[in-house]
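Long-time lurker, first post. I've been practising inverse folding by hand and with some scripts of my own, and I keep getting stuck on stretches where the structure tokens seem ambiguous. Below is the full token string for one chain I'm working on. Before anyone asks, I'm not after the true native sequence, just a reasonable design that respects the backbone. If someone could post their per-position residues I'd love to compare against what I wrote down in my notebook.
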């Protein structure tokens, strides 16, 4: 570990907004120039006029992030674009996108001499880096019932130089499997082929993939909504959002919104860019403006997140702001051992079309990440009831840690808490009313029956 970050010197001007590290003409803001260390991330950034070089500080060695290849995940392909300096210039907070979570970095005098001093690409070195990165940064061993040190001790005799990529992959993937954490995974090329090791997908998705297949299932769900559930005039928007209405026997209509991902509403810009984030939020705003205007006099809204696969956190907050008339603490994010990383996210009512009537949020074990964050925020509101199944229990934005051989380890290091301090990582968010939305015997028809059940609850008051 290099320097412990002092909160006293990390104070930022509260009035200062994040500034571009590089201007549109490529000029570097000299306040961002230098070598910076993040205890929270285990990263050292060397920021100069030629760009940003990222180093991985691990207990097993310090090395430059390998160049991305076709298997590199999104978080390994993007770099920080925005920063806020401290008053004394000795620390900065960096953001990928406006409104995104920021990371705190402290200035170093120079790049530590240990960085780049060792060759770490052998099988034993990669194993040691992998084990130490997980030990330092993973936050949920206890919550998920895993004795990491015991696992590493048992696996260590099976690792030797010359064993080959495939054999090493099986060892590392086997170490991740007991965590059952869908946000903690290994991604890389093994003998020229892309590989991915990821567990913790719940029960519904594996069941679907082993039976009818995910594509056929999703198509069947969409067709069923349009042909059997929703009134004429329902819309599928950007293949991500379904907006429609249900008119029950009482004649008082109910609004219906299903959101499959927290993002993907536009294809105008490169994913991960500032322009992309602005376009995504603008597209979402248009969708919600139209839907909530249409539903303004309806007796209730069903917000269906039962098939939501997560996405961009700013989208989750924009959704929550549409269903409240008062400000509230949506959630807090902290990183154990790094107090400077704690951030509170207050939700203020959207300055425009909102709906503060009864809202029924549908969830299942498919609901994950951004879908869970949205659920966690909304369930704190008195006008919202969660119904369905317990969510997946994977909240943390994955920390991307490339290994020296080019494989990427993504792991959960952030603890998400709701406004009361409750943490649902590893256990999921339980609904107020339990309904099996995707039963094994009828995973499509069960969804229709669950919506009918919600409509019955609304009708019954």
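-- Answer (accepted) --
I ran through it position by position. Result:
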């Amino acid at each position: 570990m290099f320097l412990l970050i002092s909160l006293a010197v990390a104070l930022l001007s509260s009035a200062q907004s994040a500034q571009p590290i590089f201007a549109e003409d490529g000029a570097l803001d000299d306040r961002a120039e230098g070598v910076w260390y993040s205890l929270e991330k285990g990263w050292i950034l060397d920021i100069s006029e030629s760009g940003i070089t990222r180093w991985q500080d691990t207990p097993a060695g310090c090395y430059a992030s390998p160049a991305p290849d076709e298997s590199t995940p999104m978080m390994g392909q993007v770099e920080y674009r925005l920063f806020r300096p401290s008053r004394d210039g000795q620390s900065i907070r960096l953001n990928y996108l406006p409104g995104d979570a920021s990371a705190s970095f402290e200035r170093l005098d120079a790049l530590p001499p240990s960085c780049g001093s060792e060759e770490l690409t052998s099988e034993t070195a990669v194993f040691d880096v992998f084990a130490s990165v997980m030990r330092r940064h993973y936050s949920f061993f206890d919550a998920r019932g895993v004795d990491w040190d015991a696992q590493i001790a048992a696996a260590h005799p099976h690792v030797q130089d010359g064993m080959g990529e495939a054999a090493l992959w099986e060892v590392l993937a086997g170490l991740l499997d007991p965590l059952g954490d869908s946000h903690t995974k290994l991604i890389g090329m093994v003998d020229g082929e892309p590989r991915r090791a990821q567990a913790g997908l719940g029960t519904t998705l594996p069941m679907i993939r082993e039976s009818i297949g995910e594509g056929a299932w999703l198509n069947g769900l969409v067709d069923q909504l349009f042909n059997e559930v929703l009134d004429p005039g329902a819309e599928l928007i950007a293949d991500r959002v379904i907006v429609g209405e249900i008119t029950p026997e009482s004649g008082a209509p109910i609004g219906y919104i299903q959101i499959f991902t927290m993002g993907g509403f536009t294809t105008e810009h490169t994913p991960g860019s500032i322009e992309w984030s602005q376009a995504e939020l603008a597209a979402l705003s248009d969708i919600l403006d139209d839907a909530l205007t249409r539903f303004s006099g309806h007796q209730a809204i069903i917000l269906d997140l039962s098939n939501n696969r997560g996405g961009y956190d700013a989208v989750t907050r924009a959704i929550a702001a549409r269903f409240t008339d008062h400000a509230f603490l949506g959630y807090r994010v902290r990183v154990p051992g790094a107090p400077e990383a704690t951030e509170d996210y207050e939700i203020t009512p959207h300055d425009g079309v909102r709906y503060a009537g009864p809202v029924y949020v549908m969830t299942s074990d498919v609901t994950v990440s951004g879908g869970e964050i949205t659920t966690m925020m909304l369930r704190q509101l008195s006008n919202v009831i969660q119904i369905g199944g317990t969510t997946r229990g994977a909240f943390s934005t994955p920390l991307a840690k490339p290994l020296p051989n080019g494989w990427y380890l993504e792991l959960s290091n952030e603890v998400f808490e709701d406004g009361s301090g409750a943490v649902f990582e590893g256990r999921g968010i339980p609904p107020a009313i339990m309904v099996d939305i995707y039963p094994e015997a009828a995973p499509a028809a069960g969804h229709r029956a669950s919506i009918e059940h919600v409509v019955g609850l609304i009708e019954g008051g």
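A couple of notes from the structure itself: The chain has nine helices and 22 strands. The domain at 19-108 is CATH 2.40.128 (Lipocalin). Happy to go over any region you disagree with.
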